Amino acid sequence: MKAWTQVPTGDINAANQRLWVAIGDNAEEVAARINTDPAFVANIARLMVNGGYEPSTSQKLAREIMGTNYFGIEEAIKHFGVNATKQQLAALAEVPFSEEVLKSCKDTHVLVAAFPLSILDIRGIAKKQSDRTLFYSQDWYDKQAFAKDKGEVGWRLVRKEPIANSTSKTWNDQQALLPKDEETPTARIVVYATIGHFLATGECLFEKIYVRCVDLDSGGDRVGVGRFDAGGLYVYGWDDGGRDGSIGVSAARKQ
C-alpha cells in the first residue's frame, strides 16, 4: 500500500478525472462539501477504501470488543480482495454472538467474517498479498474436495490455540474435551482465520503445533493444519486413532 504522495502524478490525475466525471452535475455541491466538511471527506474516503461498505452497529460493537482479534468485512476486502455482494453483506449485517460471548472470547478467539473462499483460493490470494511465504509448498491437496470447498458466508469465532490438553490424543478423545458451546470447524475456516489474521496483524497462529479439523481427505484421514512458521502453513492428514504431541484439535464457538 502507498500514500497518495507516492503514487505517480499521472495516475492521480487520471483517477481524479474519472471520479469527477462520475459525480457529474453534482460536482459543485460535492466540491463545496469536501472543502468545508471534514466528516464528509472522511466518509467518502472510508467508502472508497472499503468498497462502499458501511458497518452495522452490531459489527462496530464487535470490532470494539475484539480489537485486533477481529477480521471483518473491511479486512476481507483489503487482504483477500473480496468483492462482497449485497446478499453477502446482508448475511453478515448482524454478528450472531452476544456481547457477553464476545467479551469472554476477546483474547482467546478471532472473529472472522468468512466469505466463500476455498483453501486453494486463499493460497492463491496469499501469494500476492505478502512477501513472506504463507503456504508451505505442497500439492497433495490440490484436487481434494476439502481444499476446493468454498463454504458459505457467515461469522465464525475461531479459537486461536488448540483446545487445552488435546495433544497426544485420538480424534475421539479430543472431541470429548470440547466445551459444550464449541465445535471443531472445517480446515477452510481455520486456514481463513489463520492467514487473514496474519495479513491483518502479523501474528502467527498455530506456529509450533498442528490442529485437527473436521474434514476428511479422500483417504479417510482427518485434515489438520498448522506449523505456521517461516516456511508457511502446512496442511496434512492424520489417522483418527493416531496420537502425537504436536497435534491438538481446533475449535470454534457454536452459533
Number of E-type strands: 9
Query: Ends: how far apart?
Result: 36 Å
> What integer value in Å does the Rg equal?
21 Å
Low-confidence stretches: none
Provide the succession of SSEs: HHHHEHHHEHHEHEHEEEEE
Mean pLDDT: 91
User: How many structural units, i.e. domains?
Assistant: 2
How would you describe this protein?
It is built from eleven helices and nine strands. The chain is elongated and about 70 Å long. The protein has 255 residues and is of the alpha/beta class. It has two domains: 9-49, no CATH class; 56-253, no CATH class. The protein has helices spanning 9-23, 27-36, 38-49, 57-66, 73-80, 86-91, 99-105, 119-129, 145-148, 171-176, 187-201; strands at 70-71, 109-114, 154-159, 182-183, 210-216, 222-229, 232-238, 247-249, 252-253.
Keywords:
single chain; 255 residues; alpha/beta; 11 helices; 17% strand
Topology, pairings included?
Layout: H1 9-23, H2 27-36, H3 38-49, H4 57-66, E1 70-71, H5 73-80, H6 86-91, H7 99-105, E2 109-114, H8 119-129, H9 145-148, E3 154-159, H10 171-176, E4 182-183, H11 187-201, E5 210-216, E6 222-229, E7 232-238, E8 247-249, E9 252-253
Parallel strand pairs: 1-2, 5-8
Antiparallel strand pairs: 2-3, 4-9, 5-6, 6-7
Concise overview:
It contains 11 helices and 9 strands. It is of the alpha/beta class and 255 residues long.
